[in-house]
Amino acid sequence: MTVDELRAHFPHTDHRTYVNHAAVSPMSRPVKAAIDEYVAERHGADPNAPIANFEAFQPLMVEGKERASRVLGTAPEQIEFIPNTSTGLNVLAQGLDWTAGDRIALPDGAFPTNVYPFLNLEEEGVDVDFVPTDEGAYTLDDIEQTLRPETRLLSVSWVHFLSGFRADLEAIGELCDAHDVLFCVDAIQGLGALQIDVEAAGIDFLAAGGHKWLMATQGIGLLYCDAALQDRLRPPTGWLHGPVDWEHLDRYELTFHDDARRFRTGTLNSVGVAALHAALGLHLNAGPAWCEEQVVDLSTTLATELAERGLRRYGTSDPQHASGIVTIAPEEPDALFEHLAAHDITAAVRNQKVRFAPTYYNNASDLRHVLDAVDSFL
Questions:
Q1: How far apart are CA 376 and CA 347, in angstroms?
Q2: CA distances from 60 to 14, 46, 79, 83, 186 (A)
Q3: What is the DSSP code string of 207-254?
Q4: Start and end residues for every CATH 3.40.640.10 domain found in the chain
Q5: Count of CA atoms in the C-beta half-sphere (13 A) of 317
């Protein structure tokens, strides 16, 4: 699939340069079609449409997990759909059997999603230690110096939401294994843009929403839980966390599925699942390796061009930690943001900095449009 073929799936490219995929992404034509098809079934205008389509929808859910497993590098049995990243991280935070004196390590400056679920455990006597960072960046030594004998969990953002610092997951996974520490990843700012292999990286738990780089809808995402960790977590309960005896719904036997479906409490956001299924299909058709190459090339080129204009980058320019995010710290961030918007360019302002986040359907013409607008502002 070429860039031009991809762009044909995104009609906004005819009139807008969108470089805000670190916030919320446009939906492609395949995603819209999947939503329309699902809604049409439930709408029931077609007399043959299965309005109550719970059973009819199951094969698509199964295939959605299979697609997700190819992107994550694991088995479908270790994946479950979730509403958002926060829900996933709370499954982990609330599911472990904590003891007063346990400790959790987190890089400081992370997005609150990867902080609050763990700070909430302080009432149980669990302490949080923050790994020191410099504009989102940190080293393995910084992590190791933060870990203590009582540390049970390290949770990191794969990509820092502001600086774009990309963590070396495999190296961190090895460090956690050496210290017998569980390794959790908030993957929302990388999944769909960058390649990942959760098993090769030694990740025990991962959560990500689907509305950013995966380019699905809001309200749907994925969690991955290693098979060994599944047995250690106390799952939340509802009525779909285990096999359903449709003939005897009033026989209350608290049993759980033997895979990640145990984390499913009730009916899912089916529209979101349909959207994510389609979005994963588009990503896989494009090729995850090619997608990462495109994203990193675009962000690197943009960062270089902005630096040549004297705009200081927030975060490291080390290519080993490159992602799709490029953030600058201009003197008038709000004014630059409004100027870009006036030129039909969508970026973002976070922490009084301007953040750009191009993805794999963006092209050189998009970057030129951004840079021309920056030039006219300067």
A1: 16
A2: 31, 20, 15, 17, 26
A3: EEESSSTT---TT-EEEEE-HHHHTTS----SSSSS---TT-TT----
A4: 39-285
A5: 11
Q: What are phi and psi of 377, to 5 degrees?
A: -70, -45
Q: What is the pLDDT of residue 202?
A: 98
User: How many angstroms separate the CA atoms of 217 and 276, rounded?
Assistant: 7
Residue 11 CB: number of other CB atoms within 10 A? 13
What is the C-alpha to C-alpha distance for residues 17 and 343, in angstroms, rounded to an integer?
Answer: 9
**For the chain, what is the total number of helices (H) and then of strands (E)?**
12, 12
Residue type, 327: T
CATH number of 3-19+287-377: 3.40.710.10, 1.20.58.220, 3.90.1150.10, 3.10.20.880? 3.90.1150.10
pTM score over 0.85 = yes
d(CA 350, CA 358): 16
Q: Which amino acid, residue 255?
A: T
* Contacts of 330 by beta carbon, 8 Å cutoff, 6+ apart: 311, 336, 353, 354
Residue 21 to residue 73: CA distance in whole angstroms: 23
Task: Give CA separation, 356 vs 22, 129, 262, in Å.
Answer: 8, 30, 38
The length of the chain in residues reads: 378
pLDDT along the chain (378 residues), means of 10: 94 98 98 97 89 93 98 98 98 98 98 98 97 98 98 98 98 98 98 98 98 98 97 95 93 95 96 98 98 98 98 95 98 97 98 98 98 98
How far apart (Å, rounded) are the C-alpha atoms in residues 146 and 107? 9
Amino acid occupying residue 125: G
Q: Which residues pair with 262 in a beta bridge?
A: none
| Residue 102 to residue 116: CA distance in whole angstroms | 16
Identify the CATH number of the domain defined by range 39-285.
3.40.640.10
Residues whose CB falls within 8 Å of the CB of residue 236, separated by 6 or more in sequence, listed in order: 91, 94, 95, 263, 265
Q: Are 165 and 159 in contact (CB under 8 A)?
A: yes
Query: Are the C-beta atoms of 313 and 306 separated by less than 8 Å?
Result: yes
